[in-house]
Amino acid sequence: MWKTLTVGMQNFFYHPSLQILIDCGTGKDAVKKLLQQCDGVETLILSHAHADHYGGAVHFLKRNPCLIVAPSRERPFLIDPQLEPAILFGGWFPRQLASKWLLGPPNLPVQDLSTEKFPEVDFVELPGHTPALCGIRDGERLFVSDALFGPEILQKYPLLYHFDPLTALKTAKKLSAKASEFIPSHGTAGGKDLVEKNVACMEKAFERVENTVQRGKHPLEDVLSSVMEHIAPPTTLETYYLNRSALLGYVSALEREGHIKIALEGSQLVCY
Ligand SMILES: [Zn+2]
Asked: How far is the CA of 241 from the centre of ligand 1 (A)?
């Protein structure tokens, strides 16, 4: 049976007899505290390629040598961790984005996750937060990693980062049919109410972006700033770029669905 392990505000999933751990957190201390709760780890499965889920892998390997695997579509970011801050910034990134939360360690020996090599593990594909985030189901319990966030996290950061918010929303809406208890990596686990809270958060962001655009033709940057100001004013360069990247995902989803238009006027993008 899978066990939920917690270090600080971050949850991990661990199977003692299979000796499989999902994610390892970031930093030496977190890894040490996590390993104190494990009775050996043979395989570390990374749910997705965000540094807060694998940043401590080098320390982890020193203390507990093991196989590391990740979904194949997450691996490019693990092989070249600079892609993450570069994507957030939209080009080569300033120093402030080279933080332990956004930039993972280089040269990790990560292999492709072949689910058939783990027949005892019930993997669930949960795309949207990242291209190929994977969750683990244990009967009615589902470790969802960052496909959902706990209520306290939603309250603190109401504009949560999802690489592709429309796919993340579709994934979240299907979750209630898959299990009855959901364990997010960040914050408190919950039932279907947790799914509903996350869905409401994403739908609110969609509505806010669409309403802002429908007030007239605006430069895209003004739309992004206005929505950020209302939902989640950034406090650091990191949160600004996480918010901005998430909002661009909302804008492009609305454009793809035919709700808004994006055009080039002079040297700036406008939405209407
Ligand atoms: Zn994440």
From this structure: 14
Q: State the pTM of this model.
A: 0.95
Give the pLDDT confidence of 78-91 residue by residue, as tens digits.
999 999 999 999 99
Q: From the CA of 51, how far away is ligand 1's center (Å)?
A: 8
Of 20, 161, 194, 5, the residue nearest 85 (C-alpha): 161
Could you tell me the residue ranges of all domains in the chain? Answer: 3-203, 215-271
Distance 146 CA to ligand 1 centre (A): 5
Two tokens at 200?
């409401």
Spell out a b/e string for 131-152, using b for 16 or more CB atoms within 10 Å of the CB, else e: bbbbbbbbeebbbbbbbbbbee
How far apart (Å, rounded) are the C-alpha atoms in residues 260 and 258? 6
**Distance from the alpha carbon of residue 209 to the mean position of ligand 1, in angstroms:** 22
- Kindly give the distance from the C-alpha atom of residue 229 to the centroid of ligand 1, in angstroms, as a whole number: 23
Ligand 1 center from residue 215 Cα (angstroms):
33
Residue 5 — pLDDT band, cuts 50, 70, 90? very high
Interval between CA 11 and ligand 1 midpoint (Å):
12
Amino acid at 175: L
Go through the chain and tell me how many residues it has.
Answer: 272
- State the pLDDT at residue 141: 98
CATH architecture of 3-203: 4-Layer Sandwich (3.60)
Tokens of 108: 């990790």
